[in-house]
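Anyone up for a design puzzle?
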C-alpha cells in the first residue's frame, strides 16, 4: 500500500512525483543557467519581483536551511527548528553573484539529494517541531524542498535565455 504524500505549501508544484527524483531533475535543469550572462541573472520574471540572481541566492539559502533542519532533526532529541526571515537573510547576501549562487545551489542541493536518498523510511518519519507548521516529518521537509525548487525553477525558466 502506497502512503499519501504529505501536504506542504508546494505540494501542487511537486504533484505526484517522487520528491528525490524531482530534486535530482530540478538540479540538472538549474545547471542550464550556467550559460547565462550577468545581465540575464539580473532580469526578473515579473515587475517588482526578485531578479533571477536573487531567486537563486534564495534557493541556495533554502538548501542550507532545509538540509540543516533535516540533519538536526535526526541527531537532536526533540529538535525545534528556528524560524527566520527570508528577506533579512537575503539582505545579508544580496551582492552574491549569479554564478556563485548557482554553484552553491547545485552543490548543496546535490549534497542534500544524496543525503535524503540515503535515509530509511524510519528516518524520513522522524518528526521535529516547526514554529509555523507544528510537528512535521523529514519526509514533509523533503517534499517541501522538491516543490519549492520546482516552483522557483518555473519562474527562472520563464525568463529564457536572451
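Challenge accepted. My sequence:
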Amino acid at each position: 500500500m502506497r502512503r499519501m504524500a504529505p501536504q506542504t505549501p508546494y505540494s501542487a508544484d511537486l504533484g505526484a512525483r517522487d520528491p528525490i527524483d524531482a530534486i535530482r531533475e530540478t538540479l540538472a535543469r538549474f545547471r542550464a543557467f550556467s550559460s547565462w550572462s550577468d545581465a540575464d541573472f539580473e532580469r526578473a520574471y515579473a515587475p517588482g519581483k526578485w531578479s533571477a540572481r536573487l531567486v537563486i541566492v534564495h534557493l541556495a539559502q533554502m538548501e542550507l536551511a532545509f538540509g540543516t533542519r533535516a540533519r538536526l532533526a535526526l541527531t537532536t532529541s526533540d529538535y525545534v527548528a528556528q524560524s527566520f526571515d527570508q528577506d533579512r537573510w537575503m539582505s545579508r547576501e544580496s551582492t552574491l553573484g549569479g554564478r556563485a549562487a548557482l554553484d552553491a545551489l547545485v552543490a548543496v542541493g546535490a549534497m542534500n539529494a544524496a543525503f535524503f536518498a540515503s535515509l530509511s523510511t524510519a528516518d524520513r518519519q522522524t518528526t521535529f517541531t516547526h514554529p509555523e507548521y507544528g510537528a512535521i516529518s523529514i519526509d514533509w521537509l523533503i517534499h517541501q524542498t522538491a516543490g519549492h525548487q520546482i516552483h522557483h525553477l518555473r519562474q527562472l525558466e520563464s525568463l529564457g535565455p536572451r
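A detail worth pointing out: Strands lie at 127-130, 134-137.
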